[in-house]
Amino acid sequence: MFERYNKVQQAVLETTLHLIIDKELQATSMSLIAKNSGVSTGNIYHYFSSKEDIINELYKAIVLFNGEFVTRDMNPADSVQARFRKAWRNVIELGKRYPNGFRFIEQYSFSPYIYDDSKLEAYKGGWCGPLAKLYEEAIGQGLFIELEPRMMVQMHYGAIVYLLKGHLQQYMELTDDAAEQTILACWNAVSKEKGWNA
């Protein structure tokens, strides 16, 4: 998730993510990050000006990684429906394979700790923007009802988030069939023709 960073930055970002998930943001201090990462406070300040700076870099790194993960193997030559299914399958797989990143984004996307420019950069570099373009394409082809594409993406993300949270909290089993049925329900909610094509 943090491969594009050097070893010191990786250690700081990975440690901060684990601490925030375990102890919450307010309880995660610079001294605790230094202690648990094995990186001296002075060395941390060489790369990050403050705890807020670390949090924002963490946010951007996770969103960028998520964007690459969700849009991987998306072939523009494939049908809108095939890309739709692929993207939402990738979102589900992402949440299952990287639960801490999923939890962090869910919990802190609207936090005042996250700067507005970080949110804007994340939106452009993440997967919501590309999916909104896919939905726009679907509207242009007469496949989807005419709603604002970003709004539809967020509606569908809400359904997927509920599914993932239930899975991560062990309230429900997230089977392949449950994932497929949820994605189909999302498609049917905005599609002019219900069901998958053969």
Automatic annotation (TrEMBL):
InterPro entries named among the record's database cross-references: Homeodomain-like_sf (IPR009057), HTH-type_TetR-like_transc_reg (IPR050109), HTH_TetR (IPR001647), Tet_transcr_reg_TetR-rel_C_sf (IPR036271), TetR-like_HI_0893_C (IPR054422)
DNA-binding region per UniProt: 29-48
SUPFAM superfamilies for this protein: Homeodomain-like, Tetracyclin repressor-like, C-terminal domain
GO molecular function annotation: DNA-binding transcription factor activity; transcription cis-regulatory region binding
UniProt keyword list: DNA-binding
HTH tetR-type domain span: 6-66
Protein name: TetR/AcrR family transcriptional regulator
Organism: Paenibacillus lycopersici
Lineage, top ranks: Bacteria, Bacillati, Bacillota, Bacilli, Bacillales
